[in-house]
Structure to design on (85 residues):
């Protein structure tokens, strides 16, 4: 399988610092359980929502007020047909 990437962009009426702070507040906007450290470079965290979603992320870029990148290193999604997605 060839490598596939996903990128999304949106425009909001907030400062970059406000947006970064909101995105980095993972526990504030994901309704499942969060284990680990999502708020620093190199941090890893696991997100779980019932038996439908479990994923592990690693923070690979962390530039306050500018950019945060999470790399999904493992996932189990109970709501998709293609389990390799």
């Amino acid at each position: 399988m060839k490598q596939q990437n996903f990128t999304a962009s949106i425009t909001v009426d907030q400062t970059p610092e406000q947006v970064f702070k909101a995105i980095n507040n993972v526990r504030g906007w994901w309704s499942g359980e969060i284990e680990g450290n999502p708020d620093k470079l190199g941090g890893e965290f696991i997100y779980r929502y019932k038996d439908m979603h479990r994923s592990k992320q690693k923070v690979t870029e962390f530039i306050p007020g500018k950019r945060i990148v999470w790399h999904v290193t493992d996932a189990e999604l109970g709501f998709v047909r293609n389990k390799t997605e």
User: Anything to note?
Assistant: The first strand starts at residue 33 and ends at 36. The chain has two helices and four strands. Strands lie at 33-36, 44-49, 53-63, 67-77. The CA atoms of residues 21 and 65 lie 8 Å apart.
